Hints:
Layout: H1 3-33, H2 44-68, H3 70-81, H4 98-160, H5 163-190, H6 193-198, H7 200-208, E1 215-221, H8 229-248, E2 254-261, E3 265-272, H9 284-295, E4 299-304, E5 310-317
Helix pairs in contact: 1-2, 1-4, 4-5, 4-9, 7-8, 8-9
Amino acid sequence: MNPREEVLDVSLFWRVFLLNAAVLTGATALLVLSPATVSTPVLPAEGLILVAGLAAMLVANALLLRIGFLPLRRLTRAMTTIDLLRPGMRPPVSGHGGIADLIMAFNSMLDRLEFERATSNARALSAQEAERRRIARELHDEVGQSLTAVLLELRRVADHAPETVSAELHDVQETTRDSLDEIRRIARRLRPGVLEELGLASALKSLAGEGHGVSTGCRIEGELPELGEEIELVIYRVAQESITNAVRHAESTRINVLVRSDAAKVRLRVRDDGVGIGDAPEGAGIRGMRERALLAGAALAVDPGPEGGTEVRLDVPITNGSER
C-alpha cells in the first residue's frame, strides 16, 4: 500500500469511527441525563423504551453513514456509466478528506486514459488511412491497368473473331468493363482523391452523387473555412459511414447531407428516413465515428431524426490550429 492509499484508508476509518462515536455519545448522554430507570426484571414499558432507543440509534447511524458516503455512491454510478468515447464526463468532487481525494484521483485517471486513448486512436487511424491509400493505389495502378489491358485485348480479338464468337466476347467485355468500374469505385472510397484535389465541399457532393441505391442529396450552406487535412478527412469519413449505415442497415429511401459553418463550428448533419437505431447497441461503425470525432475535438451524436429515421450530428470546432 502506497502512502496515498494508506492516508485514504486511515481517513475513511476515522470518518466511520467518528460517525459511530457521535451516535454512541448521544445515546450515552440520553442515558445519563434521562430520569428513566430500568428495573430488574425489565418491565414491558421499559423494554419498549429501550427498543425504541436502540431503533433510534440505528436509524441515526444509518442516516449519518448514508450522508457521509453519498459522494462514494455518486462515484460508483459514474464508474459504471462513463464512456471514454464520450470525453469530459466527470463526477463532481465533493465530500471531505479521503473521499474528495478519491474522486480527484479517479478524475485524474480518466484524464490520463482519455489522453492515452486519443493518442493511440490517432496512430491507429493514421495507419489505417495509410493502408487504405496503399490498397487504393494498387487497385488503381495494378489491377485497374491489368483489366484495362484485358479489355483492349478482348476488343482486338472480337474484331477478328466470327460473328457468333464476337457476340460472346462482347458480353465478356461488358462484364470486364463493369468489374473495372467497380474496382475504380472501391478505390475512390478507400482513398477519396477528390477530397485532396478539390476540397471538402466537392468531396461531399461527389460522395452523395455516387448513387448508393437510394436518393441522396447534399447541401452546403455558406463557404466552408480552410481546415486541416485531418479535420476534413474526419468530416468526410463520418459522412461516408453515416450514408453506408443508412443504406445497409436502416432500409432508407432518402438521405440528406447538410453542412453549414459559422464563426465557431462546422456542423455536419446526415438524416435518413429509415427504421432508426431503436434500442440496438452501437456497432463498430458508430464507435469508429466517435473515435474519429475525438481526433478533431468534435462532438458526435446519433439520435432519432425529427421526422423518424436517424440523424447523425457532428460539430467540429474551428480553431487557429485547424487552419492550413
